[in-house]
Amino acid sequence: MKGLLGVAWIFPLSPPQASTFSKKVDLLFYTLTLGSLILLFCVFFYIFYFSTKYRRGSRADRKQEHTHLLLEVIWIVIPFFMFVGVFLWSAQLYMSMNLPPSNAMNIYVAGKQWMWKFQHADGTREMNELHVPVDLPIRLTMTSEDVIHSLYIPAFRIKHDVLPERFETTWFQATQPGEYPLFCAEYCGTNHSGMEGRVIVLTQEAYAEWTKNTQLGIAPIAKDEKNPANSGRALYEKLACQTCHGVNGSGGGVGPKLENLMGSKVDLADGSRVIADENYIRESILKPNAKIVQGYPAVMPTFQGQVNDEELLSLLSYIQSLRSVSGSETQAPSENE
Ligand code: CUA
Q: What's the first-to-final CA gap in the chain, in angstroms?
């Protein structure tokens, strides 16, 4: 399974390079390492050079008083541009690692002492194992049910903290089918070191086959009859959200509409403007008065204590599925053949 690229590209100490980030991160890392080694060499070279030249009793000239302006300018300007260059380079890489492409397939992740839970858009659930198709961007929406964890997949060069009470996102695009270890990289209690699993990257055909098998109940994986968007809708109805937030023209009026809310810009009563992302929606459900939408009264009660993290994820998934234009209920990854 492991192609030529599975072999470390520059340095034999790296894990396999199995995502689109791997080479970019390695290149930056080894550039920084090489730069540090060169600087280290220069520093030690001159330590030995000067301590030999000006050792006690040597005949070296100790009264040099003239300075080289040009030399000083050079050693200030060149390192300045080197450091700014490294900053721009790494900032650009950091940004691209934190902005998932809009066509990415969404997978929900919940960290818990001491296991990883994954849920695909079609409802398939996995524990400590994550099956993904190769060559497709995968967006991970992550939360923790207890303490801070950190999802770490060395072969993909991604590591992202997973926090309670909020959603974090990261993404990757695998380039090599195969199996790669997955770790928790934040000390989270007694069995922190055992909080690990594996990512299984399948070819797109094998992934389609795998999702079909999980739907038939052949693969040894729990399957919800309801995908997260559907259980979110059931919850939306159970909590009577539609009384205020109408959907598809029915009901509502008291509260803002939920169609096309996800990712849109929202004007607030205080004149500021926010992007309706996962954390905004989460806050609006749990602490409705934190941000009041312009033109609406602050009358929504809090749902703190009434919905747990998993239910929040399904509500989120339902709101994400509300696109009035297409009218499609979910973005099931299996549509992609
Ligand atoms: Cu979870 Cu360490």
A: 22
Q: Which phi and psi (to 5°) does residue 73 adopt? A: -60, -45
Give me the pLDDT at residue 51, please: 94
pLDDT tens figures, 238-276:
887 877 787 765 566 678 888 888 888 888 888 888 888
Query: Does the Cβ of 188 fall within 6 Å of ligand 1?
Result: yes
Give per-residue pLDDT as tens, 119-163: 887 778 888 999 999 999 999 999 998 899 999 999 999 999 999
Q: What is the pLDDT of residues 216-239, one digit of tens each?
A: 554 444 445 567 777 788 888 888
**Rounded to an integer, what distance in angstroms lies between the CA atom of residue 89 and that of residue 272?**
32
Cα–Cα distance between 129 and 199 in angstroms, integer?
6
For residue 193, the ligand 1 atom closest to its alpha carbon is: 2
Secondary structure of residue 277 in the 3-state scheme:
coil
Both tokens of residue 185? 């990289």
Region of residue 47 (phi > 0: left; psi between -120 and 50: alpha; otherwise: beta): alpha
95 Cα: distance to centroid of ligand 1 (angstroms): 25
Q: Tell me the torsion sign for CA atoms 181, 133, 101, 234.
A: negative
Helix %, strand %, coil % of the chain (to 5): 35, 20, 40
* 109 Cα–ligand 1 center, Å: 13
Token digits of residue 251: 């009901």
pTM of the model: 0.69
Token digits for 8?
């470390």
Which residues, in sequence order, are bridge partners of residue 125?
Answer: 119
**Ligand 1 center to residue 72 CA distance, Å?**
49
